Amino acid sequence: MSETNMQSVSSPGGRVLSEDQFTCSICLEVFVEPVSTPCGHSFCKACLQGYWNHSKKFQCPMCKKSYSKKPEMSVNRVLAEICSQFQGLTVAGGGGGTTSRAGLLNASPDTAHSSSRGQDTGEFAQPGEIPCDACIGRKLKAIKSCVNCPGSFCETHLRHHKKVKTLKSHRLIEPTLHLEEKICKKHERLLDMFCRTDHVCICTACAEATHKSHDIVSIDHEFHKKKSNLGKKKSEVKHLIKERTKKLEEIKQSIKVIKASAQKELEESWQVYAELQRMVEQSQAEVVELIATKQREAERHAQEIARGLENELSQLRRRSNELEAHAQTKDKVLFLQNLATLLPSPEPTDWSAVSINTDLYLGTIRSSVSSLIDNFQEELKRLYGKELRKVQNYATEVILDPSTAQKNLVVSDDGQQVKYEERKVSHTEGPKRFHPALFVLAREGISFGRHYWEVEVGRKTAWTLGLARVSARRKGEIQLSPEGGYWCLWLKNGEVKALAETRLPLMLPSQPSKIGVFLDYEAGQLSFYDVKARLHLYTFIDNFSESVYPIFSPCLTHDGKNAAALIIANVKHS
Asked: Which among 223, 179, 212, 194 has a CA at the least distance from the CA of 203?
């Protein structure tokens, strides 16, 4: 600054304050964010930082005192306020100006800043805009950022920045937020390249040095690409959030349904057991009444016999007394005369065949319990019917897989029927096909969830139905048991059996014509039902550790019998 432009003002005490007392010795302008070194000299914060960056060592520009590490710098607030008033002064150079620097010295910082805006065409930084790092108090909007300092500056502070001789070679760019993080620490250049090999942002000097053979693109190119990918990921995440939210609502709704179902099931269980208890109490009351009735009848009959015996016994005793009296008569004539007058003895009753049956209650309790069981069976049948209606809600489409069918089995085109024929079907052998066992599997395996299907067996005299493990043996002799990987029911010789570890005959009132099969994979349960009679036949309990397949066998024909096909039926609620 030239001497002609130097100004001086008078303080309230009469002392003259010169502008050079508030001038940075580096930029030769009024201090902007003045800081002091430990040796007591003051400079603009940006000027001192730029000086140190340029010289590569921490030294006072005035007295050249050196420091081993960067000294702590804090802005002198009092000096900064005075300097801001000098910066905001409107000098009446050619006349007309009425505001003096002395007036501004006594003005508030906001007034000084407002006056500064009168000289400056800049605008105050709004939220989201980059503010000037050199402004004190309310900051103006930055118009440029310096890569070498680094920092962002408004128009006024940019002019001061450009006048610094040591900073004339600094590179200015568009205002940038957090500029220090975007400068290469090694080369003090802007990070404007991206190394895809190391996944780091670099400057052009780094690209030519340590990343020369790497895949390098511009920051803008990588930004737009990653931004696009990020947009796609955001859409995917939003979609996942939407799906998970929907699933969460489903689960919460399921919890409500579970609670309601549990309550309903409890209420029904109370009703069922109350009914069973009523049946037991009624049956017990009937037994008590029956026993009491038999007791009364038996006692009445015994009492009638006893009265007859007592009457006859009285007669016999009277007769005995009469005979005893005649026997005492010693007069021979009188004895014979009286003996002729005696009435003849009544014909005695034959009591040898008369007896009282004391075992009155043989079979009474058994008969009562048997009747109670029949009532229980009716209640159980009602429960089976309800259970069957529930499992039918899990109806699953089952289609037979011809590639697994034994060579004598013929599968219909729609995959819903299979029957045995003496002629061998032309096909290629493979590891999936059964031989010689007469089996065919469904096309789709099951590895989770609940599934139900029904099979029409009609009046066939032999059949086998159930599940097979995917790894179960298909060639040669097959072990039809859970240990061999098969869970099946079969009909042979007029008897339905569960093929467990041993053959378990099922005591059924009649042979079923339609079999329902229900699998709860997670619970490890496979249940069979007589659909028409609405009866539960048998349930296997096991742990399923791999995929299982529905399995079917129409079995052999004998003299034209058992020639009908097994038919996978459409499920209709009972």
From this structure: 194
In a domain, residue 574? The reply is no
Write the CA distances from 114 to 77, 94, 108, 123, 544, integer angstroms: 18, 22, 10, 11, 82
- Residue 309 sits in which domain range? 221-341
Per DSSP bridges, beta strands 548-553 and 409-411 are unpaired
In a domain, 372, yes or no: no
Together in a domain, 321 and 425: no
Report whether 165 contacts 174 (CB < 8 A).
no
What are 85-128's pLDDT values in tens digits? 766 653 333 333 333 333 333 333 343 343 344 344 468 888 87
Kindly state whether residue 541 falls inside one of the protein's structural domains: yes
CA neighbor of 182 nearest in space, from 165, 199, 195, 200? 200
Contact (Cβ atoms closer than 8 angstroms) between residue 430 and residue 441: no
CATH code for the domain in which residue 160 is found: 3.30.40.10
Structure tokens at 288: 């008590």
Sequence-separated (6 or more) residues with CB below 8 Å from residue 484: 472, 473, 478
> Does residue 201 lie in a domain region?
no
CA distance 436 to 491: 19
Both 152 and 293 in one domain: the answer is no
- Which pLDDT tens digit goes with each residue over 275-324? 999 999 999 999 999 999 999 999 999 999 999 999 989 988 988 888 88
533: CATH? 2.60.120.920
Q: How far is CA 300 from the centre of its chain?
A: 74
Encoded tokens for 573 = 């609620």
User: Where do we find the tokens 């065919």?
Assistant: 440
Total count of domains within the chain: 3
